[in-house]
Design goal:
Length: about 725
C-alpha cells in the first residue's frame, strides 16, 4: 500500500519514482561484498526483532568513485554525503579519542599498579545515526557512524592573522582526515598510520558508547557479557579487544583476570579470508607510537596466553612462535587475527569449506590449543528484501503469485513452492519475459554508460566484484581472448552457428593494487578491439561498467544468464554475489570454492557449471610450479602470444600479467584451470541454446535457494554465538 501511495503521489506532482530514486547516492560505507554483507545483516537483525546496533565510520568520500579514462581506472572522490536525507546528526553524542602520548604508572591506595595514558593528541568523534527499519515489523535498529573533528573545534584566528594560514587549520584538517576515505592507500607509511588511526578511532568511540549504555543499567561488571555481545567482522575492529581490556583495567579498576574473562566472553570473531597476505598485521613501532598503552596490554595478553600454552604443551617450543600474537620479524608485527582468536569465545568461518580450511590450515594450532568447539561455521546469506523484491520486482511478484503471498520474503524456504510450476507453460513464459525485460534494461544502461550496443538475446556473462588476482578476472579475460581468436579463425558460415555472448565486467581495484589495475586495463583494451571488429559483430561484446556499486548491481544481477565465481579453490571465504545471481534466476560458472559448494548441494549439480582443481590439490600444484616444471596450457599460451603481438595495445602494458603465470609460479593457478574453464564455457553455450532446458534449470535453482537467506544466518549467530533472543515490538493502536 505504501509503495502504491508513493507512486500515485509522485505522479500527481509530475515525477516518476525512478527519477526520484536516482537522486539518492549509494552509501559509501563498505568495500565490496563485506560491506554489503554487513548491510544484509543489519536488515535481518531489524526484521527478526533482534536488539542490535551497527557501528562504523562516516566516510566523507567512501572508498572512491571509479572513472575509466583511456581504459585505466582513475579514482575520484565520491561526494555521497552531499545528499543524504537518512542520517541524523547527534551533536550531543561525542567522544574524545586519544592518540600518541606516553604511559605513566603509579600505585593506588591499595598497592595496585595503575597505568595512566597521558599527553598526545585528542580527536573528537561525533555520532550520526541512520535508522534501520525492519520488514513487516515496527522494530527499527540503529547504525551509528562516527565522524572525526578537531577536539577544540575552533579556527585559530591568531595564527591566520599572523600569516600562518596552513597551521591555522592544520589541527582540523588532520582530525577530519581520519573519517575522510575508506581504505586509504597503505603503500606509504603515512597511509598505514592513517588506517590504524581509523580502526582505533572507530572501536574506541563505539566501545565508549556501548559501555556508557551498560553503566546506566547499574548492573555489576560480571553481567556485561550477558548484556552485550560484540561481533568482530574480520580483523579490522580487533583493537576493540584491547580497548575493552584497557577500559576495565585503567578506568574501571578491575583486576586483570576478571577483566579478561569479561572481554573473551563478550567478543566473537568472524574470519573472512584464508589468504595469508590478507591476514592483517601492524608493526610494533607503529602501535607503540600511536597507541602506547595498547601495545603494553597486547604484550601482556600475549604473555599470559603463551604461558598457558607452555604449561599445557611444555615440549612444543615451536608452537609458541607459531601462535604468538607478536611475530618475531624485523620489525616485530602484531598479528591481528591471532589477537582476535585469543580475545574471543567463538571463531567462525562463513562457508563450510572456508570454516574447514581455517581449522586445518591457518588456525590449526589454535584448534589444538582451544579445542574444536571454539571454531564453528555460519554460512553467509543475503536479504531477499533487497536482492529479490527490490532488485527484481516483477520476478518477486511472479513468485508471490505462486507461493500464496510474500511470506517468502521472511521465510525464503517458501521459494520451494515454485518448483511445482517448473513445467507450467504460462509460468515459464512469464519467467522468460521478465528475464528478457531485465536484459533490455541492462542493455540500455550499457549503451548509455559505456557506449556499446549489445543484443539482449545474447548470453549475458557477468563477473562483477572487487578486482583481485585471487578472484581471477584475468582468467575470465584470457578466456574472452581465446573465444575471440577462435571466432576469428572460423569461416563466416561457422560463425553463424556460434552462441552470441556479451562478457560484462565491473569492480574496483584498490588504489595501490597495480596488478588489479592492469587487469582492468586489459579488459578495456580487449573490448576496444573486439567491439569494433566487423567480422565478429554481435557474436562477442566485451563491456567494463565503471563505478560498480549496489544501484548498478540491482540492474546487472537480474539480467545475468551466467555469472562467474571463479576464484582459485580455497581462496574465497564464501562470496555472496553468487547467491544474489542465483536468487535472480541466473546460473553460475564457478570453482569448488566458498559457498559455491553449498549452492551446488542445494540446487543440484545439474544446475551449476563447476570446473577447475580442488582446494586440496592447490598446495601440491604450487609446489610443483616452484620446484618442478610448469607447462603453460597450449591455448593459454596462444592467448599470451596474441597479447605479446600487440593486438590489444602496447606489449609492455600486460607483460606483468603474463609473467605472473608464465615466470613467477602462477600462484592463482590460471594455467592449471584454463583448459577446464574453456571446456566448461563450451558446455554453457550448448546448454543456453536449449532455452527450454535452461529455463528449467533457472526456475529449479531459484526454488532451492531458501538456505541462503541472511535471516537464517543471523538466527545461527544469535543462537550459537551471541545467546540472544528476539525482542518483539508491538504495533501501537491505530498505527
Amino acid at each position: 500500500m505504501l509503495i502504491s501511495n508513493c507512486l500515485a503521489g509522485l505522479a500527481d506532482l509530475g515525477f516518476r519514482i525512478e527519477d526520484v530514486i536516482e537522486q539518492e547516492h549509494d552509501a559509501a560505507l563498505g568495500n565490496g561484498g563485506l560491506g554489503r554483507l554487513a548491510a544484509c545483516f543489519l536488515d535481518s537483525l531489524a526484521s527478526l526483532n533482534y536488539p542490535a546496533w551497527g557501528y562504523g565510520l562516516r566516510y566523507r568520500y567512501g572508498i572512491f568513485k571509479q572513472e575509466i579514462i583511456d581504459g585505466y581506472q582513475v579514482e575520484v572522490p565520491d561526494y555521497w554525503l552531499d545528499f543524504n536525507p537518512w542520517e541524523f546528526p547527534r551533536h550531543d553524542v561525542t567522544v574524545d579519542i586519544q592518540f600518541f602520548g606516553h604511559v605513566r604508572k603509579s600505585t593506588d591506595e591499595n598497592g595496585r599498579t595503575v597505568a595512566h595514558w597521558e599527553g598526545g593528541e585528542i580527536v573528537k568523534a561525533v555520532a550520526y545515526d541512520v535508522p534501520i527499519p525492519g520488514y513487516a515489523t515496527p522494530s527499527t535498529n540503529n547504525l551509528r557512524l562516527w565522524s572525526s573533528t578537531a577536539a577544540s573545534g575552533e579556527f585559530d584566528f591568531q595564527k591566520f592573522n599572523n600569516g600562518d594560514y596552513e597551521s591555522s587549520v592544520a589541527d582540523q584538517q588532520r582530525a577530519e582526515t581520519i573519517s575522510a576515505v575508506l581504505y586509504p592507500n597503505d603503500n606509504l607509511e603515512r597511509g598505514k598510520e592513517l588506517r590504524l588511526k581509523q580502526q582505533y578511532f572507530w572501536v574506541a568511540a563505539s566501545l565508549y558508547d556501548i559501555v556508557r549504555r551498560f553503566k546506566k543499567s547499574k548492573r555489576p561488571w560480571k553481567e556485561f557479557p550477558e548484556q552485550v555481545a560484540i561481533q568482530l567482522n574480520d580483523t579490522h575492529p580487533t583493537l576493540a579487544v584491547v580497548e575493552l581490556q584497557r577500559i576495565l583495567l585503567d578506568l574501571e579498576g578491575l583486576e586483570w583476570d576478571e577483566a579478561w574473562n569479561i572481554v573473551t566472553n563478550t567478543f566473537g570473531y568472524t574470519n573472512h579470508t584464508v589468504l595469508p597476505e590478507a591476514l592483517e598485521k601492524w608493526s610494533v613501532p607503529l602501535i607503540q607510537h600511536l597507541l602506547p598503552r595498547h601495545l603494553q596490554i597486547i604484550y601482556d595478553i600475549n604473555l599470559y596466553f603463551l604461558q598457558s600454552v607452555e604449561r599445557r604443551f611444555p615440549e612444543e617450543r615451536d608452537l609458541l612462535g607459531r601462535v604468538s600474537i607478536i611475530e618475531e620479524s624485523q620489525p616485530k608485527m602484531v598479528r591481528m587475527a591471532h589477537l582476535a582468536i585469543v580475545g574471543s569465545h567463538k571463531v567462525n568461518g562463513v562457508a563450510e569449506l572456508h570454516s574447514d580450511l581455517i581449522k586445518t590450515t591457518i588456525f590449526k594450532d589454535f584448534v589444538t590449543i582451544f579445542g574444536p568447539d571454539k571454531f564453528t561455521n555460519v554460512t553467509n546469506g543475503i536479504t531477499p528484501r533487497r536482492w529479490l523484491h527490490q532488485a527484481n520486482p516483477r520476478l518477486s511478484e511472479l513468485i508471490s503469485s505462486k507461493t500464496g503471498g510474500k511470506d517468502f520474503l521472511t521465510d525464503l524456504n517458501e521459494l520451494n513452492k515454485i518448483e511445482l510450476y517448473v513445467k507450467d507453460k504460462a509460468f515459464r513464459k512469464e519467467w522468460a519475459d521478465i528475464k528478457l525485460a531485465n536484459k533490455e534494461r541492462l542493455a540500455k544502461h550499457i549503451k548509455a554508460s559505456a557506449g556499446v550496443t549489445v543484443d539482449p538475446t545474447a548470453l549475458f556473462d557477468v563477473q562483477v566484484k572487487r578486482i583481485h588476482e585471487y578472484k581471477r578476472q584475468q582468467l575470465n579475460i584470457f578466456g574472452v581472448i581465446h573465444r575471440y581468436l577462435t571466432l576469428k579463425a572460423m569461416s563466416p558460415e561457422e560463425r553463424k552457428k556460434q552462441q552470441p555472448r556479451v562478457s560484462i565486467f565491473g569492480g574496483k581495484a584498490a588504489p595501490g593494487y597495480w596488478m588489479a589495475k592492469q587487469i582492468i586495463h586489459l579488459i578495456n583494451s580487449v573490448g576496444k578491439v573486439v567491439n569494433n571488429d566487423e567480422d565478429i559483430g554481435d557474436l562477442l561484446k566485451v563491456v567494463f561498467l565503471e563505478d560498480y556499486n549496489v544501484s548498478k548491481a540491482e540492474i546487472i544481477i537480474p539480467a545475468s544468464d551466467i555469472s562467474e565465481h571463479i576464484s582459485t579453490a580455497g581462496t574465497e571465504a564464501s562470496g555472496t554475489s553468487n547467491m544474489k545471481f542465483v536468487l535472480n534466476g541466473g546460473l553460475i560458472i564457478g570453482t569448488c570454492d566458498g559457498a559455491n559448494i553449498e549452492i551446488t548441494r542445494e540446487i543440484g549439480e545439474n544446475n551449476i557449471f563447476l570446473f577447475g582443481n580442488l582446494a586440496e590439490d592447490v598446495e601440491d600444484l604450487r609446489h610443483a610450479h616452484t620446484y618442478g616444471t610448469h607447462e603453460i596450457d597450449t591455448d593459454l599460451n596462444r592467448v599470451f602470444q596474441e597479447i605479446e603481438k600487440g593486438t590489444f595495445g602496447s606489449t609492455q602494458d600486460f607483460a606483468a600479467l603474463i609473467s605472473a603465470v608464465r615466470d613467477h609460479g602462477d600462484y592463482y593457478l590460471v594455467s592449471d584451470d584454463f583448459h577446464s574453464y574453456i571446456e566448461t564455457q563450451a558446455l554453457v553455450d550448448d546448454a543456453y541454446r536449449n532455452q527450454e532446458e535452461w529455463i528449467t534449470k533457472c526456475i529449479t535453482s531459484v526454488a532451492r535457494m531458501g538456505f541462503f537467506s541472511s535471516d537464517r544466518c543471523i538466527n545461527e549467530y544469535a543462537e550459537g554465538i551471541w545467546n540472544i533472543e528476539p525482542l518483539r515490538v508491538e504495533k501501537e493502536e491505530g498505527a
